[in-house]
Structures are given as structure tokens and as C-alpha cells.
Fold this sequence. Notes:
The structure holds three protein chains of three kinds. Chain A is built from nine helices and ten strands. Chain A has helices at about 45-55, 75-80, 100-105, 125-130, 150-165, 180-200, 210-215, 235, 240-255, and strands at about 1-10, 20-30, 35-40, 60-65, 70, 80-85, 170-175, 200-205, 220-225, 225-230. In chain A, helix 5 packs parallel to helix 6 (about 180-200). The longest helix of chain A has 18 residues, at about 180-200. By secondary structure, chain C is an all-alpha fold. Chain C has helices at about 1-25, 35-50, 55-80, 85-105, 120-125, 135-155, 160-170, 170-175, 180-205, 215-230, 240-260, 265-290, and strands at about 110, 210. In chain C, helix 1 crosses helix 10 and helix 2 packs parallel to helix 4. Residues about 285-293 of chain C have low confidence and may be disordered.
Amino acid sequence: MLELKDIYKYYNPGTVNELCLFKGFNLTVKEGEFVSVVGSNGSGKTSMLNIICGSIPIESGSILLDGKDITREKEFRRNGKIGRVYQNPALGTCPSMTILENMSLADNKGKTYGLRRGTNKKRIDYYRELLRPLNLGLEDKMYVKVGSLSGGQRQAMALLMSTMTPIEFLILDEHTAALDPKTAEIIMQLTDTLVKEKHLTTIMVTHNLRYAVEYGDRLIMMHQGTSVIDRAGAEKAALGIDDILSKFNEISIECGN
Amino acid sequence: MKKSTTAKVLGAAMLTMSLAGAANVYAEDAQYTIGIQQFAEHGSLDNCREGFLEGLKEEGIEEGVNLTIDYKNAAADMGMAGQIADSFAADKVDLMCGIATPSAQSCYNAAMDAGIPVIFTAVTDPVAAELADEEGNPVGEITGTSDKLPVQQQLEMIRTMLPEAKTIGIIYTTSEANSESAIKEYEALAGDYGFEIETTGITATADIPLAAETILGKVDCMTNLTDNTVVASLATILEMANEKNIPVFGSEIEQVKIGCLAAEGLDYIELGKQTGRMAAQVLKGEKKASEIPYETIEEASLYINSAVAENLGIEVPEDLSSAAAETFTEITEYTAE
Amino acid sequence: MDFFITILEQGFIYGILALGVYITYKILDFPDLTTDGSFPLGASVTAALISRGMNPYLTLPVALLAGALAGICTGLIHVKGRVRDLLSGIIMMTALWTINLRIAGTSNVPLFSKETIFKNGFLEGLLPEGLLPYRTILVILLLTLVTKLILDFYMSSQSGFLLRAVGDNDKLVTALAKDQGNMKILGLAIANGLVSLAGCIFCQEERVFEISMGTGAVVIGLASVIIGTSLFKNLTFMKATTAVILGSVIYKACTAIAMRSFEPQDMKLITAVLFLIVLLISMDRKKKVKTHA
């Protein structure tokens, strides 16, 4: 279970450009929940993910993972239990290393990176088995550098790599936004399969309202650092794209757009 | 494609080179080849080289007649110095001449195994540079001349010129070994003449204005070493010293020409000539380099600039002006080399 | 023949330096100017130890460690002090000037009368008579080869993978729950250790330590890396480390040839032009690949 308690976050504190994003923001994500987050640009979606992962500091408040306070924990330590996929497919893989090398790197997460061989020959078949269901032919390109793959292929790998080792939390940061509609669909289905298979607690930020409605068991709409819609379970299932769109418009009018 | 071209170029270069080498070896009538390596571009070192060739000529070994000179400048780069010396060794020159300490050392290093004699010049402390043993005798087929400053004469001259002065300032570059040993000598001898030495170290030309400003506030006069970096910026130092009416003494003739009050200095052309004569002995086979101890110039020459003295309001004592090897009556505009 | 051997000697020594520069420039994507200070650092440590009578072979690991320490300092300045990469290197390079002078005691330390890794009783007893004239190149070849193989081994280890990842995509390293800052520091330590090792060998080959010997070391290293990786780019069977060492040999061959036809004063310009040409050639190729894809 993840808890964000009374989070305060300012940008450019102490300058004329000071911007207060979160004023006492609270969020609780239950174990095994798949949360979709929507909202306009600047509403605080990505900032929220960054706060959870420790990529950006906060002014006050606390972050608890399974009851343990991780507010002061460094980003890389938190990542031991968190997997994250970014919007940019290049951020989830190493372009100058081969698929096999990338998979081996991810496979070793949580253990020490010592002087043993970087690739374990015995695991190659296992990696192939992981890649085969993607239907992208990656299992036959084990010695190809990831840099020469397409964005969709890379994102599929990034998703696999971030969920390869046991993690408690999956963070998806608009991970289909940079892909063409067909590839986005494939990646989205893959995500759903992985999340269900591994029972991962997931937060997915997306601009695709259809994905937000179709996938996941809870939906949050963010606006100016607060959640304006937060529906779970049956309430969420009853929610349609039109409901969200009208809320969007309502907010836009308020803002004078 | 690219690789094979590279290989061809390399091959061609080797070929022309080995042909050139062969031509030297089989030429008739005592033809000599000398590889001269000078460490950096520097007026005094250029004078050394010029003198070296003159000295050889005096002994009947003349460039273009029976002497081929392969002159290389290491551009103050130690790696380059090593490579130049190695190429001399590969070309099997009859003698290597290293001008300034690092060049002398890399020549010796390359020549040692190739059995080529080395003559050095403008090495301030051949013993510290391990080019001569503690007694000053050659450590191998290597000898030459030292440009050790006549520190004692210089101190004596400053005392005569400025009877009241107490402190002498020196600016030096921390990376120049020659300067360090010269300062040690100054510090050891200064007491005998009632002086105190104040030094300030710099690492680059850019440090000079600040260093000069600091030290000029603490001293009665300044004296120069043969420090390359400082000498190159002498004009700056002179200008600042003139403003404060502080006399600056030089270490060689060129410095007096451009505005130092006086110098008990070395004549680098003379030094070079002396070196050239030693080289001739070795080339002709009269003596082996290992049989000739290194030499220094015995007598320093006094140079005075009377125009500078006038500007500073200093009366040059009679016994000094009569002893001067040369007195300049005007200040030559400083020209960068 | 001598000419060739000279080029190989210099090329292989600077090849070790180039391996260090390869790690910072190509793998870490870190323009590390510490190199200009860590190369003479290896030499000053060596000169200080040998003139105090230490076994010359022991200077190799000591120089390696000293260089690694310098690399760690650069890394700490950059990672913990959040100073920009270029500046961190400049700061360490400047500091090392004084440190090198202090270690060596003076700006010029000759080692003519001392035993070196190339000239000692042990080696003379070991090598057959006929090979003695070639002992310098043999020792250098052995050292370069061993260094390369150890580095290759490291690069294919788990830790080596992580090091390659940090230059490629440091976010991934963080995602793998590893501190990317520490990996950068480790990389800088290895790189400067290698550079310092090259300085140690160079100092014994030239039998002198001279404070100015590091000037331009980073340029030689960069040129070697760029020449090596660009010329042998299409030879997939060749390891990058091999390419880099060959790049260094080619660079030294070019300067040796250029030295015969040009004035040494012009060498820096020639280096710059050579550098530029290789860069342009390799960039041209990159463009072609892109348009094809």
C-alpha cells in the first residue's frame, strides 16, 4: 500500500516564479490496485509520480510504502521496489547495448553487480521465452543493439525489463504517448497482462481517456494539484469517456480557456 | 580501402626515411649528421644553437659543406621530445645535441642504447639532471655546457650598484627545475652580501601581473633568472617596477637591452660556441664524450643600461661602468619572439 | 625497423592512456580533463618511488591506485558537489599540478641511474640474449595486452554492464536501484587509474619525470579514441578496446611521419586537422546510416 500524506510541493521556491503545485495533497493506493490518472498539462500528474519515486524533493509531507516511511529515501533505493516506464522509450533501455545485455542488466536488479559475467548463458532461453509473447520478433535479435529497434519495440522491452524482477509498484508515465496507435494498443495490452499476471500495484498516467476508462480499477482526474474525480470499483466501471470529457470542459471554462 | 592507403603512406614514409639514412652513412669524406633538439622556442636557446653551429664551423665542420643538421623543436612537449630523440636514434645520426634540460635528457635516453654521443647545452644543473655524476664527470657518452647563472657575481654587482638595498625579489615558475636550483643558490649566497631573498612562484604567464604587484611591494630591487615564462613577460614586470621606481636586474644581455638596469650575464652565443667546439672534438674522434667533463662559462660579462640608470636616478659606480663588457644608452622596444 | 618499434612503443603506452580516455569520453560521456593531470601523476609517483629505491614493478599498481584516487576526487566534485563535468576535470587537473610537483619534489626527476621496468637485473636474466634489444617494446606490449584483457573482462562483467549503462542512460541505472553517481565515480577512477598507469610506464621509458609531460595528454587520448573507433567501426569482430589501442598507434605513426615533413611548431595544428578530418569522416557515415534507416 502506498500513502501520500499532506504533500506540499513548490517549484522555484523563494523566487518571483514561485509556483505552488501541491498544498496538502493526499493519496492512498491499495495493494494490487491499478490506478489510471488523467488530467490536463500542469495538473501535477507527472510531478506526483516523481514525488513517489523520489526524483524530485518535496517541501513537507510524508510518503509511506507498506507503512514504511520512505520520504527521505534516495531515488535509487526506492527503485528497488518500484518499476517505472517513461513516455520516452529511450529512457527505459540502453541503446548501445544488445537486447541480451539489456535483459541481463534488468535480470540482476536487486542483486550486487559484481565481477561475474554480465550475461548468464543459462538464462538466454528464459529471456527468449519472455520476449516471444510480444510477437515482435525480439527473441531472434538477442545480439542486436537496442538503439536500432523501433520505439514500440524499445518500449515493450522497457516494460518487460521493469517488471522482470519482483517489484511492488509499477509506475507508468504516459508510456504509450510516443507510440503510434497500433503499437500503443499492443503495449497497453501487454501492460494489462503483466499487471494482472504479477498482481502489481500500478499507477498509470495517460492522456488517452479510452485507456483510462478501459483499463484499471480506479480512475483519478487531477487538476491544479488536487484530484477532482476519484472513482474506484463499480463506480469507476460505470464511468464513460463522455463523463470525463465533460468534467474536462468544465475545468477549462473555470480556467477561462 | 582507407586502411590500405594508410599502410601505403606509412610504407612510403619509411622507405624515403631509410634511404635518407643510408645516404648519410655511405657519403664520402667525413660527412657528419647532427640531430639538434631544442626544447622550446626561446631567444637564449636560439642563441645557443646559433653559437653551436659557429663553434663547429670554427673547427671546420660546416653546415651544407660536410655537415647535415636535422633541427627539431619539441615545442615544450615532453612526449614530442621523446619522439624526436627516438627518430634521431632511428636515423642513426652521428651526434645528438640537446638544448635545455628536458631535451638533453630525452636525447640521452634515446642515444644511450643506440651508442650515439650526446652534447648538451643550456642545462643549468647537469648533476641534478643526472647528465653528469656528483664530481661533474660524464655518466656516459654525454657531455656539454651548463648555463648556470653567475649568482655570486650578480649579488656582488647588485651590492655595488645599490649599497642600501636589503631585499631582492625573484619571480620564478614552479615548473622550471632550473629556476628552483638557481633560487637555492641565491638563498645560500645572499647572506654573504647582506641581502634577503623574497621569492614568489607562478604557474603560468597569467599569474605574472598579480605576482609582480605582490612582490614589488616587499622588495628594494628585483633580479631575473633565465626562467622562460618570466623572461617572456619581462616587459610587464619592467613596466610595473618602473612605476614604483624599483630597479630590475637581468640575467643576460637581451634583458638589459630591453630595460633591465644591469646583468652579470651569460652570453649564450659564446656558450653555444664552446659547446660546438666540444662537439667537433667528439665528431672528429679526438676525444670521446665520456672523456670530457661538462663545462661552464668561467667569466660572466657585465652589461649595463645607462638609460635605465638615468630614469631610476641611479649613479652607476665608476668601477662597474669601467668593467662593463657593454653599456647600452637606450632602451630597445621589447619585441615578442 | 627502429622507426617502427619507436612508433609501436609510443603507440602502446599512449594506448593505455587512450583506454582511460575511452572510458570517460565514449562510455561515460564525460569530457574528463583530469587526464592532463593524472598522466604526470603516474609519472611523479613513479619517479618518487624509484628514486627512493622501490622495485620498479611495484610502481605500476601504486600509480594505478594514485590515478584512481584522482579520478574519485573528480567524481566526488562532480557528483556530490554538483559541479559541471568539464569544470570538475579542470579543477582536479589544476590541483594535480601542485600535487605532482610535491610528490616528485621538483619539476624534473631523472631516472638514468635507476632500475626501471625496462632495465633491471631480473629482466636481463629472464630474456634470452637475442631479445634484449627489444625488451622495451616487449615489456610495453605485455603490459598493454594485460591491461586490455583485464579491461575487456571487466567490461563484460555485471559491474561493467552497469558502467556502460550509466553513460548510455543514467536513468536506467537509477531504475535498477543503483546509485548512478557512484557508478560515474567508479568509471572515473578506472579511467584515471589507466591514464596514470600510462604515465608510470612512459616515465620509465623516457627515464625522466617532467612536470609538463601531461600537457595535451587528453588531446592525444581523444584523437586515438576517435581514430580507432571511427576507422574500425565496421569491423564488428574487433573489440572497441583493440580499436582504441590501434588508434593510438596510428596517431603516433601519423605524428612521427608529420614530424619528418613539418616543423614541430606546426604539430598542434596538424593534430587538430587530423582530428577534425577523422571526426568529419565518422560523422558523414553516421548521417548515411540515418538516411538509410
